[in-house]
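Entry under discussion copied across for reference:
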Amino acid sequence: MLSNRVNNIDGVKITQLKLVSDARGSFTKFYPNIELTNKLDSIAISLNSKLGTIRGLHFQVEPFAEEKLVTCLQGSIFDVIVDLRPNSITFGKWTSFELSKENSQQAFLPKGIAHGFQTLAPNSVVHYCLSASYSPESSYAINPFGNLGINWPLEAHSISERDRQGIEFSIAAQKYLESLQG
């Protein structure tokens, strides 16, 4: 097992969203075109009914590498990111943090960051703003139980076969590097 956990990853930003609440409920406004360096391509929502669900660690290679804005709109998630960028000072490192409805935080992830999460509450809803279209040929999953040494806080009650059978970090880093070289 590698011991590559750090407190933060170069270029990743956690911002506080402004949540306005009253008797009707709450309202939050997103500004993806201010946060994203590249133009907003799409918005996605991940609905996760089961506690302990793991999704990821996902990334796309060029020309479909994507920036992401990730927010947990309902429930809570243990969010994990891994740096695949060969020239980054945090290359090969990973970190984790909690995103939840209660903390109203949003994570900006630059291109070259693999992303995954585990639900800490049932019925967690995760909102993504993405700068690139989904491309199955350019999309990969890193094994969340592989040699990165990630200590997931809960037993994995639900995970896709694609994620469970994901590639190891070294292969992921090589695929990302090759995509940069054209």
Q: What stands out?
A: The mean pLDDT is 92. The radius of gyration is 16 Å.
